[in-house]
Every structure is written in C-alpha cells, then in structure tokens.
Amino acid sequence: MALSTHTTPTGFLLPSIHSAPPFFTQQPNPATQATVTEQWTKLILSYARFRRLFTLRVEDAETSGGDWDEVSRNPRINRRLLPSYLEYIISQLVAKGLAVYEPAKQTRSVQLYWRLPEEWAEVLHEWASSTGQLNTIMTFYEIVEPPLPSELSNLPISLLKKAIGILAKTARAQIIAVADGEGVRFLAGTSGR
Amino acid sequence: MGGNQSVPKITPRDRAILDMKLQRDKLKQYQKNIQRVLNREHEIAKQHLANGNRDRALIALRQRKYQETLLAKTDAQLEQLEQLVSTIEFSLVEISVLHGLKTGSEVLKQINKEMCLEDVEKLMDETQEARAYQEEISNMLANNLTPDDEEAVQEEFRQLQALAAPDAEPERITKLPNVPDTEPVRVETPEPYVHEPVRERVPVLA
Questions:
Q1: Which of B1, B13, B18, B33 to mutate against chain A (most A CBs within 10 Å)?
Q2: CATH number for region A117-186
Q3: pTM above 0.90, yes or no
Q4: Interface ipTM
C-alpha cells in the first residue's frame, strides 16, 4: 500500500501522509498522536501560506465548500477530518504560538500565524521603504489593498494592527487617529533601538 | 529609551491628510460596490432574456446604465480628491526642501563668519614676510662662500656631471663582457663596477 503525494486543483502538493487513513483519526498512543499533530500543523500552515489563508475554523471541518476542503477532506480514501479532531489540532496550534483565537474567548476559530506578527512587521516596513512611502501618511485600506498586489494584500486588519504595534515599539511606525478612522506613518528609524 | 524623541509630532496637517485619504478610500470602496452591482445586473438581464422576460431584462439594463453613470461621476470626484492629496503632499515636500536650503545657508553663513577676510589677508602677509626672510638668510649663507670656493664647487659639479653622463655608457660596454668570463656572478657586479671608479677619482682630485 504505497502512499503517494497528491496535487490539488489549486496546485498545492499534499504530503503522502495525507493519503493514509489513520492520519484522519485521533490516535490513542500519545507519542504517535504528537507526531501526527506535528504533521497536521505543518500541513495546515504550509497550505495557509500557499493560499494566503488567515483563518481556520472548526466550522471548516463541519461544512464543505470552504477554503480548507482540499486539506480537511480526502475523497480518494473517503476520509475527512472530524470537527472534534480539528478543535484539538487548533488548540495545539495556539499552545505552540502558531495561531491565536480570534475573536478572543472562544475556541472555534483562530487566526493562523504562518508568518509571525514580528515577521509581518518586518515585511511591512520593508514594503513601505521599498515603495518609497516612508514618512507618508497611509490608511490601512491603502496597505492591505494596494493598487499593485504586494506581500501585504488582503492581510487581515487585526494582523496588520499587531504588526504596526510591534513597529511602533521600535519607533518605526506611528499610528494616527482621526474621527473617521485610523492611519499609520512609517518612519525610517533604526532597526533595534 | 527616549524612543519618542525620534518620532515626529502628529500635526493637524497630518490629520487633514489622513482624513482626505480615508475619504478617498471610501470612494474607492463605493466604486467597487457599484462595479459589483453592475456585474450582477448584467447577469440578471441575461437571465431574464433567457427566460423570455424582455421587459424585465430592459429594466435591469437601464439600472445598469444608471449605475454606470454613477460610477463615472465617482471617478471624476475621486480624481479631484487624489489630485488634492498629491498637491498637498508635494507642497509638504517643498516645505522640507526649503527648510533644508535655509539650514544649509545658515551653516554656510556661520562658516564664513569664522573665516573673516582680514584674518586671511594678515595670514597671507605674514607667510610672505616669513618666506622673504628665509630667502635672505639663504642668500647670506650662499654669499659666505669666497669666490675661490665657489669656483671649486662649480668645478666638482662639472666633473660629476661629466662622469655621470658619458662615462656611464662606455663603462657598461666594456664591463659587461667581462662578467661571463669571470665567475658566474649575478648582474649586481656590474653596478659596483660602474659606481666605484667615480668614487675613486673624486678623492684624487680633491
């Protein structure tokens, strides 16, 4: 029974373990379970990175037609990820700091950190300098939906705010608020203090 | 940490710019929305036609036309707003250029003050005096030699010149063949050969 990798319609290469039926069931043995969880974590994060998905919900295992179908289901072996198992995997992601419950105080939906906020902060600052927009007032909308698609397109505003917060601590960004909304100004600053 | 010192203050001007940009964003989103409605009406019209409801289809198309005019108007307003924003940003740039020029000119003035003209003149004069003094001394020292000594010095100089120039060549021509006849010496030996006769003769003359 050779397990094979499989390329999804969107062009993502699923690892061979995805074709193994036991992958989709919670394992009684803690050691095996730890390895399997590790594999699921890697798979989920790399899929999210590939398709630039930021949210994962238990709901994605309950219903079909969402963005996560290619990963949560394997019709070729007639297996799918059960919601309870997904909830467990999600809690493990949060425990490892690779996701946060978003909105807070619930355990069904998380925001994935396939790139940590600190890394997003760097990407953000880098983008602002390379497009010559340092010291310019910018709106959040301008950043996540720029006329030219960039690394930051469609970034969730909450993640954007976290990244800006990190930059503000090293004096590389400044948040400005007016009656109608908020904006940010990126500064050259010095990396570090 | 003192991080706040490097962060510029948020001026009311900045807030005004932000406000305008937020308005611009709102317009852009409004445009996106209208575009979406446009597309949907198009689909609806097609469906109605397929179902044979010509009237409904016509209504949908009229809706669509109306939305298109809205879109055009929004475009015009958006352009105006964006122009205003860029003009303001440009004038901010101009202000900072002016500020830079002012600072530069201030610095130049300060430096010029330190370099006052009279001081420079005085310095040049003093240097000239010192140089003239130096020349006088050299002349006096030069004139301390009696005419006889001067003649001897000149003679020595002429000898040296004569030896250094023409003799060097015949010396080399005669000496070079010798080198292979004697021991297997390096090329260095001809050089002492050339120099030594010069040194020997000078004491003889003196």
A1: B18
A2: 1.10.10.10
A3: no
A4: 0.73
